[in-house]
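Following up on my earlier message about 4-fluoro-L-phenylalanine. Here are the inputs again, as you asked, copied directly from the submission form:
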Amino acid sequence: MSGKSIHGEWSSRWIFIMAATGSAVGLGNIWKFPYIAGENGGGAFVLVYLLCIAAIGIPIMMAEVMLGRRGRQSPVYTMKSLAKEAGAGKNWKYLGWMGMLAGFLILSYYSVIAGWALGYTVRSASGMFEGQTADGIVSLFSEFISDPEKLLAWHTIFMVMTIVVVARGVKQGLEKAVRFLMPALFVLLLVLLGYSMNTGHFAEGVSFLFTPDFSKLTADGVLVAMGHAFFTLSLGMGAIMVYGSYLPKDTPIAKTTITIAVADTLVALLAGLVIFPIVFANGLEPGSGPGLVFVSLPIAFGQMPGGIIFGTLFFILLVFAAWTSAISLIEPTVTWLVEKKGMKRLYAAVTMGVLTWLLGIATILSFNHWAFEFSFWGLTKENGIFDMLDVLTSNIMLPLGGLFIALFAGWVMKREHAKDELAMKRMLWFQLWLFLVRFVAPVAVLVVFLNAFNVFDRVG
Ligand code: PFF
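Thanks, got it. Here's what our run produced:
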């Protein structure tokens, strides 16, 4: 298979790196990573997450980009034609289907949280955090999420923003959005790091994040860490696959992928280093859940000189980071509608946007009228449908998708084809990659699944 995707092609390797980093870096790094690290006890969780990125995430990301570039279509058709090329069964296309479903489910709640960031941009700009106590900021947040109308308004605005960019297509839409925003976000996080270093609790934050205490880590915590490795790298649902399908032929996949994964990890760790010292300095609870960033940072913005400017800038950049990720969540389905139904890109984007927006209402209500507690393998969650969607997608669907991508790339695809696509300079690197996708990644995903289902306890 060769030629270009009918949906367009990136202008250069750098644009691909920017776009894929834009997809990877998002709410997952700044909103989710800190709060799940907090809920799961810190250091040991972070270590498992880093191991998962290195041993599972990076090899699978290479595989996913490679499949995309070779297939050059939406994930469903890419998998179908690659399976045909490899002489394998038709069922591989369901991998594409599962990915589309996962993207739809994730975006429905992702857009709601991105809406929080929009709302907080305005709150920050209007000086609402100035002179507030930590308690005051906590109650600002609880009032905010208990008002479904407000959340709905922001969710709607964010969804419209996403549809507008996606409708304009790869070149006009996606490329322009990512070029300056990612570097700007990084710089702003460094500025905030300067603040948190001066809170007097920096060492405590560092030790919370990097001193592993394995007694705090549960089997579910390991599952959450692995699921997050997939979520944060945008893996296992075809997003990186479609982005790979727009990649020019001569791009070195391994180098490019590693750059993206390292950048993504750095942003998450930076966010953690910014947030936890503020959490400890203000006596907040690290395990307090999805509100963690929306409480800790506004406290800091309320106290620091120039807080209105920094706060507003920060939330604007968070919105942009979420925006570039949301685009990639919807892109697989949009390309599929264009290919399969011959829909115009605009209609495809609007159709998917509206459906996702509707489902998002369930998440909005999970934080107020429909909030209920439920237990999931020993984890107690408080925000009903939102948590269910999150657990289902991040902890089950994405790792499962990743598992099958690894199996396909390692066992089904012809070895020469993989070698040709990856075009690594040294045979040794290729062999290492093959070993990781054939054995390490699939076994690791399975073991973590079985462990979380308590299979080992029952056997032992
Ligand atoms: N990687 C994004 C984040 O960390 O916020 C979320 C995401 C985007 C997940 C795209 C999956 C995906 F396909």
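One observation from looking it over: DSSP finds 20 helices and two strands in the chain. Hope that helps, and feel free to reply on this thread.
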